[in-house]
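User: D-beta-hydroxybutyrate dehydrogenase, mitochondrial, Folsomia candida:
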Amino acid sequence: MAQNGFDLKDVSLDVWERCIFWFAVSYVVANVGWFIGFSWFTLFFLVLIGGCAGVILIDRLHLDSKGKAVLITGCDTGFGFASAKKLHGMGYTVFAGVISSDTDGAKQLQKEFKTRMYTVPMNVTSDEDVTKALEYIKENLPADCNGIWALITNAGWSTFGEVEMVPLDVSPNPMFYLGVHSSSVFKIGKY
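Assistant: Predicted structure for D-beta-hydroxybutyrate dehydrogenase, mitochondrial:
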């Protein structure tokens, strides 16, 4: 770790990618500026340094996770599972919605994380399961949390094709409907 608290090993690949983007932007701006009479060198480095500094400063911003709970649907596998682990690692209280407490993903989350991780059986296509999940969260929400801070609607299903183009009578429960329905249940439940 460097003396000022900044170490290049801590910079993620996303930050490097965004800095390369600013290199390209700097090149274009410098050439346009040179064409209309400005110093190519000055414009290039001003835009490059400004862009990269902005990227690094934004990357260093972090939300305080203290007292914040999140609900993630579809945590049995894939994106939901990875999101639950990542947000728990960042200090959030996680309510991980799973199809069943018996799935491999649910068992692994319960085994790996003893605190701030709650697996909630929640089939998002069932109104009853969504309502039961709300009640479970109300009962188990830690005292320092002021409700659900974020809802990540990851679980769902649809017929083949663009979800927005499929009529509701063909697929009565597309992802969009599930997200809106889950959100409205938790909003009405004041969580």
